[in-house]
Structure formats: C-alpha cells, structure tokens
Write a structure and sequence with these properties.
Oligomer: single chain
Largest sheet: 8 strands, parallel
Radius of gyration: 23 Å
Strand content: 5-15%
Strand order of the largest sheet: 1-8-7-6-5-4-3-2
Distance between the termini: 74 Å
Helix content: 40-55%
Number of helices: 17
Number of strands: 14
C-alpha cells in the first residue's frame, strides 16, 4: 500500500499541471476554463484555434483571466510547420533555409521576430526548434524541419534560434531528444528505431542538444524513438535511462522536459496514452503534450485520473509527480516575468492575419528566404515575361505539416505575372497530363523531396525531355540533380520561399 503525504486535491492539481492539452474552437470552451481553475497550468494551440492575430490575443486573454501565469504553447516552427499562419503559409522560412544561409545573426533575428509575434498574441511557449541532424536523406518526418545534415551547423543554429526566441519572452522547446534525424519511419504512425552505437549518438545526435542546454533552452521535447544503444526496451519518452540518466544526469539539463504528443501511434498504438503518460512522467518527463488529435475534456480527465491512480497504486512516485508539476509552474513563472519585461513591439491590429505586421522587422522572413534560394540557370535562361503554367507535384505530406497550409508558388507568381495558372499532380499523373494542361505556356514544375519519390522524378524527367525550357522549383530537401532551364532550391515550402522563387523566375 502507498502512503500518501499530500491530500487528494493537491495530487489532482499536480496531475492536471503536467498536462498540455489542446481543445476545439476559437474561443475557450467552458470545460477548459474550469480545468484551468482546478490546476491545469498549460494549454496548447493548434491551427484549428486560429483565425487572426486579434482573435488569438483575445483567446489567450480569456484563458489568462482564469490563471494569469498560464503557459500557452504552440507548434510554430515557421517554414512548413506553421500554426499561426496555417491557412496562408508562413512569413518565415524554416530551419533548412536558415541552415543553408548559415548566418547566425539572421537565424537569431528570424527567431526573435517570430517570438515577438507569438508574444504579441499571448503565446509564451513554442514547441521549437527542431535540433535534429537530418543524417538520413529518406527521413519522412524531419527533412526541411532540420537546419541540415551537418552536426556542427545544426548545433550553432539551434543555439542561435533559442537565443532569439527567448529574447522575445517566449520559451523554446528544443526537440526531438535525443535526435530524430536518422529515422525512416514517422513516429506519428509507428515506432522509429535508430540502430547506431553510443559513440555515434554522442558525436552526432547529442551535440545540438548540448548546445541547446548551453544556450539556456527552457524546455526540451522527447522523441518517441527506440535507441537500443541507450535502452533496448523503451522509446526515449518512456525511458528513465534516456530522460533521467542521459538528459538530466549526464547532460546536466535542469529545465522542463516535455513529451512529444502522447496520442501519436508510437505511444497510443503500443502501451496506450494512459499507460504511456504514467511511464513518461515516471521516466523523467515533466509535461505531457496531447491535443493535436485528441482535444476533448474526456482525454484530459483520463490522463489526470491515470496519473492519480498510478500514485495511489505505487506505480508512480508521488514526489516525481510533484517535482514535474513544480517544474511546469517554474517555467510558467519565468514566462510571466519575461512577458512583462519583453518589448511587445507593434500592436496587434484588428483585421490583420496572425503573421501580418508592419515595419522593417516584419520583412526579415522574406530577406532570409531570398538569401536561402539556390539558383542554377542554363546559359540561355531569361526571366519569364508572360504567365506560365505551374505544375505542382504533390507527395503525401507528413502529419506535422497541416493539410490546410498552402504551398507551391502559383499564387506568388500570379502576383508578378498576372494570368498564371496551375494544377496539382499526384502519383497517378505524368508528363502527358501536365503538357495537356499547360498547352503553349511555359511550364514551371514544383517538386518536394524529389529524391524520395521515384514517381515524381520520372514525371519530371519526361517533362524535361519534352520541354527542356521547363523551370524546376524544389521546395523540399534538394538532393536530386539540378536540371531545367532554371532550377531553384528554396529549402522549404513556406509562403516566403514561394515568393523568393517567383521573384527569380520573373526577374524581379
């Protein structure tokens, strides 16, 4: 039998404090406000919660009316993974573009401006940056979300990003510990496994996380990946050897440890979210991210009750749950103080999109995207003067990228070359369909990770054979050979990356 040293109310508050749930709607539902009053210390925002900057600001104000030190978190990496600009595409290029430029001051300024915009909307915890070393070019989930495949480059840009983001009063959450870059499985769907030795892990995967700790990252997110060299039985999120032994004790990290979403199949499809939540807290996690897929009161109550029952049954030390809750509250206190100290910048104006601001600082994302574009032109290349046809070859997207978020360059090119038209083409399409749709127009072929999709490469080969004057825009990881009359590697599919490519095509 377990001896309880605190009352049931305190135990329940601690269990609620370690949850970071999502919800449905653009205003806070009654159940969420009620649970905040009962001890919930964090809330996560997703694209479904966002319409405009003023609306987000009003939403976070509504939440903080219940608890003024509430952590409001978001998964806002910029680039391909955006929530604050989920329906328009991001005003900031993602990590791969910043790594391609390799200017630490630029990375720092981009992160600071992104943080300033989040802070102006009342967000004070960002589940970013990704510190993964994208060492496996076939990685289906990281790719352009990483600063690159070079360990030292990833480490220095991770640190610069953290410095910039936290200078704006928004806590960073460096992910996905101990490194998701050498996987070819998406942990949203199954359990990835990294079979490398300890020496490789320390020389490659862990270097950026050491840099993040040195830079003062306020939180670190664990990955649902199995690393047999560290723990042959449990994935990182559930492993005391990895979260406590490696991250806490060996690397000396004393900040908040956040789990990746517990409803991902690597957890939900194996031990289940209730058992997984208990094991994660016992292993050393302090907060549980949930709500991307499960965003209801029932989920919150199930996880709360599972944690409380685990303490009562002796499966989870009461002191461990109390310590986890205390770390959440400590970060909330830091964020509250940082919000008071940070300069808020431009006021949020009614009617603006979440990313829309004015002034020179607001252009930093486009500046970065232009610098990231890598252009290879044939000797005969001349900028287009008439409206082309944009053929976008669309792969199956990884689940971290919202299906609502537009990409490609058609809209941006139409602003510069009015009359531009286009279409999307999938695995069952080929060059013949593109040529029939384009007619006499010049073709701009937009691809994404061509090297990972044989059907895409074959369609592009056939298109170039028929129309050598085709322009090729690669908006993923640029590993395939540059070809076409003009080849542009944007290093990401953010809206500003599309704009930079469109400017190159039109000669602006």
């Amino acid at each position: 039998m377990t001896t309880m040293t605190t009352g049931s109310a305190t135990l329940t508050r601690d269990a609620l404090a370690v949850l970071q749930p999502g919800f449905v709607g653009t205003t806070a539902p009654d159940w969420l406000l009620r649970r905040i009053g009962e001890g919930l210390a964090s809330v996560g925002l997703f694209g479904r919660n966002i319409v405009s900057a003023p609306q987000v600001a009003a939403l976070t104000a509504q939440l903080r009316a219940e608890r003024d030190d509430l952590l409001v978190a978001i998964d806002e990496e910029g680039g391909d993974v955006t929530r604050i600009e989920v329906r328009t595409g991001s005003s900031f290029p993602g990590n791969l573009a910043l790594g391609a430029v390799d200017d630490l001051d630029l990375t720092r300024e981009v992160a600071r401006e992104l943080g300033r915009r989040l802070a102006a909307c009342g967000v004070n915890l960002n589940w970013a940056p990704s510190a993964d070393v994208n060492s496996n070019p076939d990685n289906p989930i990281i790719g352009v979300r990483a600063f690159g495949a070079d360990t030292d480059l990833v480490a220095r840009h991770t640190a610069a990003y953290i410095e910039g983001l936290q200078a704006a009063g928004v806590a960073a959450c460096t992910k996905h510990f101990p490194g998701h870059g050498d996987t070819n499985v998406d942990s949203h769907h199954a359990m990835p496994r990294i079979d490398v030795d300890l020496d490789t892990l320390h020389r490659r995967e862990l270097v950026p996380f050491r840099a993040a700790i040195a830079a003062g990252s306020k939180s670190v997110m664990s990955a649902h990946i199995l690393l047999p060299a560290l723990d042959p039985a449990r994935p990182a999120t559930l492993s005391p050897r990895i979260l406590t032994g490696l991250l806490r004790e060996e690397l000396g990290y004393d900040g908040l440890i956040v789990s990746d979403a517990v409803e991902m199949q690597a957890i939900a499809g194996t031990v289940g979210i209730e058992r997984g939540s208990v094991l994660a807290i016992a292993a050393g996690a302090d907060a549980l991210c949930v709500g991307g897929g499960l965003a209801d009161e029932g989920t919150v109550l199930r996880l709360r009750d599972a944690l409380v029952q685990a303490v009562r049954d002796g499966e989870l030390a009461e002191e461990r749950l109390a310590d986890a809750a205390a770390r959440v509250r400590a970060l909330a206190a830091w964020a509250q103080g940082a919000r008071a100290e940070a300069t808020p910048g431009a006021a949020v104006q009614e009617g603006t999109a979440p990313g829309a601001t004015t002034g020179i600082a607001s252009d930093i994302g486009l500046v970065a995207a232009r610098r990231a574009a890598r252009i290879t032109a044939a000797p005969s290349w001349r900028p287009l003067e008439s409206a082309p046809y944009v053929a976008t070859f669309t792969p199956v997207m990884n689940i971290a990228v919202s299906s609502e978020t537009p990409w490609s360059i058609g809209a941006e090119l139409a602003e510069l070359l009015p009359g531009t038209e286009g279409g999307t083409f999938g695995t069952d399409s080929g060059a013949a369909e593109v040529l029939a749709a384009a007619g006499e127009r010049r073709v701009v072929a937009v691809v994404r990770d061509e090297h990972r999709h044989p059907w895409m490469a074959a369609a592009l080969d056939a298109l170039l054979a028929a129309r050598p004057d085709t322009v090729v825009v690669e908006m993923g990881v640029p590993r395939a050979t540059a070809r076409g009359a003009l080849h542009i590697a944007t290093h990401g599919a953010a809206r500003v990356c599309g704009r930079a490519a469109a400017e190159a095509i039109a000669g602006v």
